Amino acid sequence: MLLTIFVAIAGLSILSAIEKGGEVLWFNTNNNPFADWSFRAITLIGEIYFILPAIAFVWWKKGRENALLIIFAMIDVAVIVQSLKHLIFSHLSRPAELIGKLHSLRVIAGVEPLHFHSFPSGHTAGAFAIMFLLASAFKNRTATFFLFSLALLTGISRMYLLQHFLSDVIAGALIGVATAWIINRYFAHRIEGMKFVSFRSK
Known about the structure:
single chain, 202 residues, mainly alpha
């Protein structure tokens, strides 16, 4: 939580010092094939390809209660993000739409830039939420730092791949961590007390 807040403050400081889209243009002009491949892979952390295996792993190692916390958190994050994108900030376009009209942008091979519903970044929100809950489940300082780094790189990948502005990423990170923290803080005991039907033969 504190790491995310610190990074968010740093990100807001950068936003106050540059024009909107300056960060995207910087990434777009400072790239290479290795970074292209790396960020295409890292951005999948915010998608179901990573989330489902992570939930299964937690269920196996830490029990269904911890896995259910992640499931509930990811559902909540998805509802919050999509509501903001489509109901409140539907007028905010993505970098390919806004910057693409003024600059010639390099499109990363294998990635089709989206144009609308920019704010907030759903991939970043999902990555920070699941990394927070994974860190809470395994309670290891080294693992926590590693997981936070992966979440941070997911946010960076969204700018590198021309999908989001820094403001979208900061908002996504805060939404993800805040949602995961609330779920972990106030609903963990309720999940632990839930009665589950057993299908084992008696």
